[in-house]
Amino acid sequence: MKFLRLILLSLSTSVLAYTSLSDDFLKLVPSGGDDFDIHNGKLLAPILIPRVSGTAGSLKVQEHFVNFFQKELPKWTIEWHNSTSKTPATGDRDVPFANLIFKREPPWVKQGQSNLLTLVAHYDSKYTPDGFVGATDSAVPCAILMHTARSLDKYLTQMHDEMDALGEGGTVEMDMGVQILLLDGEEAFVSWTDVDSLYGARALAQAWEDTLHPSLSTYRNPLSQITAFVLLDLLGAANPKIPSFFQTTHWAYKNMATIEDRMRKLGLLEATPNSPFLPESSKEPHQFGRGHVEDDHIPFMRRGVPILHLIPTPFPRVWHTMDDDGDHLDLPTVRDWAKIITAFAFEWLDMMEVAPQSQ
Ligand SMILES: [Zn+2]
What we know:
EC number: 3.4.-.-
Enzyme class: hydrolase
CATH architecture: 3-Layer(aba) Sandwich
Protein name: Peptide hydrolase
Distance between the termini: 52 Å
Bound molecules: zinc ion
Keywords: Acyltransferase, Hydrolase, Metal-binding, Protease, Signal, Transferase, Zinc
CATH topology: Aminopeptidase
Helix content: 25-40%
Number of strands: 6
Oligomer: single chain
Number of helices: 8
């Protein structure tokens, strides 16, 4: 018994395979194009409405997400995580918060066996000002993650089919999956405190800490399955500058920055920013540790989950104002992010294994 546990431990700490995408594969990564149109774009337009937790707008965007996955990505599982809380703005009423979890694992894995690239954004919008849309905060990040999911889908199918045929699977490298968390209740109802913010994330992190997988699972609970918690927030304005916040995930930051740089040099990106979106590749160890931004990652980070936080500093000029709407987005930047994040997920999930053959 002891021996087996030791084996499992060594499996779960081994290094994942990581092969860079070829130039040819980078060129095939789609931008999403008109699906990010603010008026009738299939992915983005339906999210550009007020969607305060517990309101009709919130239900509408939930339906948009669920319909999209049910119709177009039937191999992804859909899970709801519901909680309620009182808020300082809503008195005795219990406000409902609904996190959505869309997951694609290899078909052979059992509960607690897969390691999961975890891509995250919040879909709720701020309670005030009335009519606030939150295009960068975080309608665009949600739409980007829908695009990433659908771009991955056929390659994941191909990869799983090939691995199944070869009888592979059962190692950390092979048991890799991806999940997309669309979280509710990120915003404060009145002003940001530990109890008035992150309603959905706090409830989910707690629930996952309390959910133990069957004994002898590779991972003891859903938190330990997360290889990286990649949180997108406030994306969609021109000239974003994303710091590398955490030394523990700086290697992943650098991988994403390299993708950006390669795509830019290959002429695959549309925006012409005054500096790279991810300018801190060469940050040195002693430069880390000077603060971070409070966001949905906090309850997960406190429980030891590795975090890659993609949030610009400074925040977009429109942050938490009525101007954070579709008209103030920079769509070339939005489509560039869609490409960069999709390519990052391809690379993480080792898609060179199923790269289309170049002619
Ligand atoms: Zn916000």
